[in-house]
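YM 10:42: Phosphatidylinositol-glycan biosynthesis class X protein sequence, as discussed on the call
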Amino acid sequence: VLGAQAVCQSAVVTQQLLQEGFHRDLLLQVELGVAKEDLRECTVAARTHLPPGVYVDPYELASLQRHNFTKALVIPDAVDVEAPEYLATELAVLLYMTPDPRCSECFTATLPVHGRYHRPTANNETVLVALKSPEILICCCDNRPSTECWKPSDVEAACLGRSSYPCQWYSVKHKPVNEELIMQIPVGLRQHGFLVCITTLLVTVLCSSVILAAACRYGDFS
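YM 10:58: structure's back
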């Protein structure tokens, strides 16, 4: 049985956005208040909910998982990466965390997230998307933890590296450093719509003319 009381009192979650623009990295860190040695038979994960304005690319995640950079499950697993914000739905991501070598009681994980295209606005060049603090989960397939502070969760997933079948996950009581994280996403301005349309049309006509001229000059029509 693990020291659940210590987890209740000192579990702290921080999240941070790296880079700028549409393509960011969400860095998560949890300080459980329990030494990693006491969690050798357990797996720590974070379940985060992404609003419609943000998405994860399943193909990118699959590539990262093949190289052991990131381990995650996306719910639902079918993600329309081309959908704009106003046609998208919320996503849930179960992100498996790894021990942080710089902290004896810490676990970290990084999730690549991408901003969706939003409707143009009248006077703001950015929109704000709020990322809520994640839920911290623990599963111990070979060790039943005390449920004094860890409540059973409805997550159905395997303990990564521990088993290939779903185990009982527990939700850890914690206090987030910030209740939510704000992501700024660039958007277009409505007054630029006419200029963008004209420019796009002119570029399309110019490129088509160059291709047609090259085809007529160098093409073999015999």
